[in-house]
Amino acid sequence: MELCVDIHCRIGEGRIEETRPVDAALREMDDAGVDKAWICPTDAYVAVRNREGNDFIANVLSEHPDRFVGCAVSNPWYGDDALTELKCALDKGLRVLFLCPPLQGFQLSDPLVDPLVELAVGYSAPIYAHTGTPICAMPFQFAALAERHPKGRFIMGHSGFSDFWYDVPHIGQLVENIWFDTSPNGPDSILQVISAAGESRVLFSSSAPSSDLSVELDKIKKLPVSDEVKKKILGVNAEALLS
Amino acid sequence: MKLDTHTHVMLKPFYGLEATDPEKLLSDFVEYGFEGCWISSIDSLITRDLNVQRVANDALAELAERFPGRFEGFCTVEPSAMEDGAREIERCATELHLLGVKMHPWLQAFSVTHPGMDMVMEAAGSFGMPVLFHDGTPPYATPRQIGWLAAKHPNTTVILGHMGLADLWRDAVDCAVLHENIWLQPTGAPVAAIRVAAEAVGTDRLLFGADSGFGSARILGYRLSLYEAALGEEAFEKVLTENPQKLKSKRKR
């Protein structure tokens, strides 16, 4: 059986539409045939309660080390404290830096975030950022950040969904250290990104519980691409990114 | 009758896509179990020339006549055309028998506060034509802006065509709670947001929209699955079949 990895979802307690208990996530993964998920905490923990969020994720990892990869959160406005928090989280075994400008209140191209990115790069941790929100989280802003840190491996969260699908293929052609995830983009937008960036830089994600894991997975399985390409999108590329 | 209430057609090639082949479009819909769709013209959204829009509105009417019961047209006008725009809506209602009006503040580059929009809303309302807005996109197509316009024209039905998309769906849901003339079409809004909308507003004013007509028909299957995951089978069936008919029945012929 081929490895299946969901590289972006949330887990834990939050507002009603964000809440996804660990056991519910595991059930959804088992039902859909997803082996592993990269997990982030819910909004309040991403925005301000970073320590609690990272500790929660670390705790989930300790209970289910084979099923989850932890994403660390640290709001860049906390300055040196943000660096301390990220270092602490990465030392606890979290492996990805998760940035969310609309929740954390900064622009993706702002040098404010550079120290966190440099620290993540030093740990060989991929940097996943939410994109698609005008003003603060736009694909070309993310491209500027990635170009400033050529050793970093960046993941364009949601690939600019929804109104930036014009921009994304151009970035895919130009900036080689950016990977792209699939949810909640329509099938044709994903095909455009595969065509522009190549199938090795596209990663399956669900964005659960904002979207639905099984629907997002089914969408990838139905893409008119070879089984080899699907295998890469569904798991091989994610594993390579963490190796 | 299963309907996609948010479909685009193109009279001319657009951004690397071919002009719409209506027979192919309908056969794609049949493949996914749909019997018809509500169409608007991209050609009208990327111009400020009312004459170009008149031609596109005529084309929508021709499609509706050529494929009776399968296509229902939504005309578009330029708000700054003022009285001429309102007269074009009247022509679309009385001579072309189109169902509604489609406005796209982002692509058409207007603010809903433009005085011409009062004329659009009044003309549409007088014929019971719903006004379908692109929404979810700053700076001119946000739900609160369109909600303000809907509040000014309570006798005109407004459809928020994306329910605020990923970032502004909370505003869209709140606008529908506040204003009973607002319907929600959560095309591109998260599954979790559709659930919140169904809880806060109920399912009587929800519509299924796929934003189809660009590229392949695969988007239909994807959006169907998302709506069904959000609403469950029974409510989804109502949204897909009953609600469009209910809205259509408001149209004064």
Description:
The complex is a heterodimer of chains A (about 240) and B (about 250). Chain A has about 240 residues and is of the alpha/beta class. Chain A is globular. The longest helix of chain A is centred in the C-terminal third of the chain and has 16 residues, at about 225-240. In chain A, helix 9 (about 185-195) links the parallel strand 7 and strand 8. Chain A contains 11 helices and 8 strands. Chain A has a single domain, classed as TIM Barrel, CATH 3.20.20.140. In chain A, about 55% of the residues are buried. In chain A, helix 4 packs parallel to helix 6 and helix 8 runs parallel beside helix 9 (about 185-195). The mean pLDDT of chain A is about 95. Helix content of chain A is about 45%, strand content about 15%. The longest helix of chain B has 17 residues, at about 50-65. Chain B has one domain (about 5-250): Alpha-Beta Barrel (TIM Barrel), CATH 3.20.20. Chain B is α/β, with parallel strands linked by helices. The model of chain B has no long low-confidence stretch (mean pLDDT about 95). Chain B is built from 11 helices and 7 strands. In chain B, helix 4 packs parallel to helix 6 (about 115-125), helix 8 (about 165-180) packs parallel to helix 9 (about 190-200) and helix 9 crosses helix 10 (about 220-230). Chain B has a 7-stranded parallel β-sheet with strand order 1-2-3-4-5-6-7. Helices cover about 50% and strands about 10% of the residues of chain B. Chain B has helices at about 20-30, 40-45, 50-65, 85-95, 105-110, 115-125, 145-150, 165-180, 190-200, 220-230, 235-250; strands at about 5-10, 35-40, 70-75, 100-105, 130-135, 160, 180-185. The chains are: A alpha/beta (about 240), B alpha/beta (about 250).
